[in-house]
Design goal:
Distance between the termini: 26 Å
Structural class: mainly alpha
Number of strands: 0
Order of helices and strands: HHHHHHHH
Radius of gyration: 13 Å
Number of helices: 8
Largest sheet: none
Shape: globular
Length: 141
């Protein structure tokens, strides 16, 4: 991994949040699932987290059925295995971590622990994780 991977983790030319609309349906579902799981990491989904997820869902281009599935996902218990199942490449691993980090911008201790576990399970090295954290912090908003 390097700077290009971190830049590519956000998937959009503007450098904004992961652009689910530019991704395939499977990738969009995976990123949105990752965001939902990260938001659940501390046992509650706050208004800022809900807003971030809803904004990405609106941009996703997913079918009404897929959107309904994701809203149901909000009510289910956290399922890290479901998030990890959608990751097929190092770039996707970086995207999943970045999307997760984005939704918990001001991570609580529980969310920080979740992000650490996620990074380990995605096989992201600490340098890449720091780079992605810094990239998310540098985003406007």
């Amino acid at each position: 991994f390097g700077g290009a991977a971190a830049a590519g983790a956000f998937g959009s030319a503007s450098g904004a949040a992961p652009a689910a609309a530019a991704l395939g349906e499977f990738e969009a579902m995976t990123l949105l699932r990752a965001m939902i799981a990260a938001a659940k990491a501390d046992g509650q989904i706050d208004a800022q987290e809900t807003q971030a997820i809803t904004a990405q869902l609106g941009k996703s281009g997913l079918s009404a059925e897929d959107k309904a599935f994701l809203f149901e996902e909000l009510a289910r218990p956290l399922n890290l295995e479901a998030v990890l199942a959608g990751v097929k490449s190092p770039q996707q691993a970086a995207q999943v971590y970045a999307a997760s980090r984005l939704v918990v911008a001001d991570a609580s201790p529980a969310e920080q622990a979740y992000l650490g576990l996620l990074a380990a399970r995605l096989n992201l090295d600490p340098a890449m994780t720091r780079e992605l954290d810094q990239a998310v912090k540098a985003l406007p908003g």
